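Fill in residues.
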């Protein structure tokens, strides 16, 4: 029988979670087998994942930050789109949990010979895999793969649709830094139109009871966000005076056709967070999912200030992804 997290921590001498534990309903049971998006997760599902992430966050503080809970699993990282933080984070999480890891790159595969996505994934599944982490430029690919194979599918970003593990690590970081999510005031600033991060964050934060405002140029605010239960603003000063957390989003120049704002300089003057903002509004925490366009979304000094928890987000991303892998592998009992 597979060991539970409780058993692993007991055997390795780990103590109770330092982070505040969520009290789950007595009849709660985590039944998810995929992570396609946070739209398919309940508030309790999200809380449970964050609870597990707290255990793994403590593992990362150990001299040897490993916990071999997945040493009988084979995981494929199927990345059709460039990535640094997400890909490395998933791969490191998998290896620190003892899984066998296979990395797929479309640039050096039979995709270049015309092989379809369906044939690619079915050929990979025939090699007896357990889980697939997929990033693709087209929305809906993780859901498509879910219908093609029996392995668990984890969405590492699909077009401008969702990026659920990024949202989970962002919410975990907010909870770790600021406190309870319920009632938290969060402003998300910048390229709302092209961001998959913003959709997942809005879904997760609203489900957990946060208040969310999106802020940016009118040309970069899609109509759908108001239907998601958030407010829209085009005034950065008002937003920073109101919020507990300010999350700046990268201007995704590679996804734009031009004309959405006059220049990067003007964007920074209107929507970039500067040291003057930190001095004027001393209470908000700065976040950014990366990569940062320094001097555009954030001043250099802001990104490197003690008000920014950007590197904490990266570390927490490893813990969150370890938790997701652990839970979707079928190991769900706390003990």
């Amino acid at each position: 029988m597979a060991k539970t997290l409780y058993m692993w921590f007991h055997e390795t001498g780990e103590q109770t979670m330092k982070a505040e534990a969520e009290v789950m309903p007595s009849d709660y049971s985590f039944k998810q087998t995929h992570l396609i998006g946070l739209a398919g997760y309940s508030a309790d599902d999200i809380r449970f994942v964050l609870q597990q992430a707290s255990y793994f966050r403590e593992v990362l503080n150990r001299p040897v930050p490993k916990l071999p809970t997945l040493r009988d699993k084979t995981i494929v990282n199927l990345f059709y789109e460039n990535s640094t933080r997400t890909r490395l984070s998933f791969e490191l999480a998998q290896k620190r949990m003892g899984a066998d890891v296979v990395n797929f790159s479309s640039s050096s595969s039979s995709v270049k010979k015309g092989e379809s996505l369906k044939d690619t994934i079915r050929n990979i599944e025939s090699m007896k895999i357990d889980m697939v982490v997929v990033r693709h430029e087209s929305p809906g690919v993780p859901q498509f793969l879910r219908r093609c194979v029996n392995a668990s599918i984890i969405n590492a970003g699909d077009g401008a649709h969702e990026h659920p593990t990024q949202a989970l690590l962002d919410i975990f970081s907010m909870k770790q830094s600021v406190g309870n999510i319920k009632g938290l005031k969060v402003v998300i600033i910048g390229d709302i139109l092209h961001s998959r991060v913003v959709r997942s964050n809005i879904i997760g934060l609203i489900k957990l009871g946060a208040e969310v405002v999106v802020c940016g140029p009118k040309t970069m605010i899609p109509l759908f966000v108001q239907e998601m239960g958030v407010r829209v603003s085009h005034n950065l000063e008002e937003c920073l005076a109101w919020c507990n957390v300010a999350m700046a989003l990268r201007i995704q120049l590679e996804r734009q056709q031009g004309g959405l704002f006059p220049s990067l300089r003007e964007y920074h003057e209107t929507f970039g967070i500067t040291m003057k903002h930190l001095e004027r509004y001393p209470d908000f925490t700065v976040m950014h999912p990366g990569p940062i366009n320094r001097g555009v979304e954030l001043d250099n000094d802001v990104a490197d200030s003690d008000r920014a928890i950007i590197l904490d987000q990266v570390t927490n991303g490893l813990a969150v992804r370890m938790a997701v892998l652990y839970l979707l592998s079928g190991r769900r009992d706390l003990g």
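The longest helix spans residues 310-328.
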